[in-house]
Amino acid sequence: MLDKLIQAVSNFVFGNRKVLLVVFGAATLLFAASASRLTVDAGFNKMVPLEHPYMKVYRDYEKVFGGANRVAVAIVQTDGDIFNKEYMAKLKALTDDVFLLNGVDRPSVKSLFTPNTRFIEVIEEGFSGGNVIPATFQGTDADLKQVRANVQKSSEIGRTVATDFTGALVVAGLLEIDPQTNKRLNYFEVSSRLEELRQKYEGPRHSVHIIGFAKAVGDIRDGARGVLAFFGVAFVITAGLMLFFVKDLKLTGVALVVAMMPVLWLLGTLPLLGYGIDPLSILVPFLIFSIGVSHAVQMVKTWEREAVSGVDSLTAAKRAFSRLFIPGTFALLTNVLGFAVIMLIPIDIVRELGITASLGVAWMIVTNKMLLPILLSHLQISKSAASKDAFQESRVERVWHAASGCVDRRKASAIVAVSAVILAVGVVGAHNLKVGDYGIGVPELRPESRYNTDNAKIIEKFAMGTNTLGVVAQTKGVQGACTNYDIMTVIEKFDWFMQNAPGTQSVISLPGLAKGVNAGFNEGNIKWRQLPRDPQVMAQSVTPIDTATGLLNPDCSAMQVLVYTTDQQGETLASLVANVKEFAAKANSDKLEFKLATGNMGVTAATNEAVDAARWEMNFAIFGALLVMCMITFQSLRATLCILIPLAIVSVLCEALMPLLGIGLKVSTLPVIALGVGVGVDYGIYLYDRIEVHLEEGKGLAVAFFEALKERGTAMVFTAVTMTIGVGTWALSALKFQADMGILLAFMFFLNMLGAIFLLPALAAFLIRQRPAE
């Protein structure tokens, strides 16, 4: 059945060589034209699991309490404090410029100069208050003295004003849709405008520090531009190694061109499907190129071996096609399926990565299995390359002869035993893998990056920090809940409970502020700093607190408690979420329910939980998919286990390596194992395909394995080394997530190759029925 299929496809491919070359050429030109329209596309909503329960709460209250998609610009005085005319003039101009930025939700802008920044004080007649910086401010000494006094009377110290009075913040929320274009807001444009503001206001006496999703994405985009340089370096390294391996310039050129074609076709397909390319998936094209090189090398070496045997180029191409069409196609289909399971993760950016990788590999089936044999059929192998290849093969055979000893039962037992010990160590190490971020700042960037140093400066200067976990206290069937003593008391207890939870920096809630207002109505007496039981007095205490604070909605049916966290590490956040759930389990009733989550840490908590849940789901899905494909290919559970067990061990070791390198399990690292396994399975499929052929010829397992190594082993090692070096160069990237992915993928590529050469035959010694050697 398969032989007839192979023969039919072979007749079609080689019987229409000229026509297919024209078709491939035309398709390449069309995809190149389409690729010129490809844009870099990033979005806040793409990065988060919108279907997660926390995100549903976030979306429900986003317009009421404000979203997590904000930018904060701090201008810091390098000498003295902010109460001088020059600083105030800069802060006023900066506030105006931020207010006018395209994409800013203007009512959300907050700084010392906006009317939503107010103070209240207790005087003999009762209360007095107003804007912290009055409309009459001219920058005189008297004005500056008054502003200092107003700041000290307000609750802005540590929020919009630095705790040491050396800086102030301008904070603004961003819209998801650009009101001018009615399209998704261009975060790269926002980031560029923010950088222009930095250049405009920074000087000898002032430093500017900017944080927020849009700025982070912009900085990641700037770092991603270096990917092209790494791609160029990897291409040169690959070309050099391939020329050394193949010993023929024309063959090297053809293999590299064919390996590049699915990359170009992929980049051309994305705009046709309405996709751009996200900074977090910009590494996928290089991965596709690496896989393309792997399959191209197998085809070229098989063709070369046939050509050296004395047949003409066309016959050699037909034989190479016949030998590699089934294992190569099934290997690539396995890659497609493996990458496709990434789309099970309910985060749009990860789904886009899965689509991108799957499309690239799908195009490779066409280019590698059809175009490359056609091109090879038109080439002639040089005599010098043939002689060099024969000499090289003779030396390598000695290595493969030694490696074939792995099927000896005694040696196989030792290899399996060592592998079991390594697996046990890996399982223990993998338990230390943490979900979420390590360190402070944006983990996709280096700790020393400008963004992360800006983030550290803002955390240092402002007591409220930048990491906010919002919890919504939602009432049910209670009119005027803000004046209900029982409801407010429960929320007050929650405030106190979270203040004493590990990982909390500070807490702001409506009851907390209302107690201060109540004391104010009683001449500031601290004894009155408590919630009044009388509804009218409670109303008097709550009324001065505006909805603009984000602590209550207009009808008081929902009140937000803001928990400022000490950092954004996954462990810290998980502990705080557990504390919220612990309190809610005891305090929730038919009248009041505490709901997670709002704020940027609420979004992060939802993402971390989605990633944690998807970790096992993805692993089971990818190995299940590989199990099915290998069973279809080899129709043997024993053979399938020989191929998959080494991959599973390497996957566990990768998870054990991550905590040692300070890499957490997050959106940018979750797909690494799927990508590594998807690529690594090729080694086992290609190698076992030839083992099976030789076993069916009646050869013993040791001989069959030796012959398989001679035919496929050298190309496997070359591919693994080339891919390992190529992705290993990413470790030097300015982007930490690229460096992390490079290290992990290099680790998996190389170990998967070792597993296929040493552990696969050792397992086969026990699982595959032995035949006497010829």
Describe the structure.
By secondary structure, the chain is α+β, with helices and mostly antiparallel strands. The chain folds into 4 domains: 1-36 and 225-385, Multidrug efflux transporter AcrB transmembrane domain (Multidrug efflux transporter AcrB transmembrane fold), CATH 1.20.1640; 70-175 and 186-221, no CATH class; 395-431 and 636-774, Multidrug efflux transporter AcrB transmembrane fold; 467-605, Alpha-Beta Plaits, CATH 3.30.70. The chain contains 24 helices and 10 strands. The strands form 3 sheets. A 4-stranded antiparallel beta sheet has the order 2-5-1-6, sandwiched between helices. A 4-stranded antiparallel beta sheet has the order 8-9-7-10. The protein starts with a helix and ends in a 7-residue tail after the last helix. The mean pLDDT is 86.
Task: List the SSEs and their pairings.
Elements: H1 2-15, H2 17-35, H3 53-65, E1 70-77, H4 85-99, E2 104-110, E3 118-123, E4 126-131, H5 141-153, E5 167-174, H6 187-201, E6 206-212, H7 213-224, H8 226-246, H9 249-272, H10 284-308, H11 313-340, H12 348-376, H13 383-403, H14 409-430, H15 450-461, E7 468-475, H16 485-499, E8 504-508, H17 510-520, H18 535-542, E9 558-565, H19 570-587, E10 592-598, H20 599-634, H21 637-660, H22 670-696, H23 701-728, H24 736-767
Antiparallel strand pairs: 1-5, 1-6, 2-5, 3-4, 7-9, 7-10, 8-9
Helix pairs in contact: 1-11, 2-9, 2-12, 3-20, 6-7, 8-9, 8-10, 8-23, 9-10, 9-12, 10-11, 10-12, 10-23, 11-12, 11-20, 11-22, 13-23, 14-21, 14-24, 16-19, 17-18, 19-20, 20-21, 20-22, 21-22, 21-24, 22-23, 22-24, 23-24
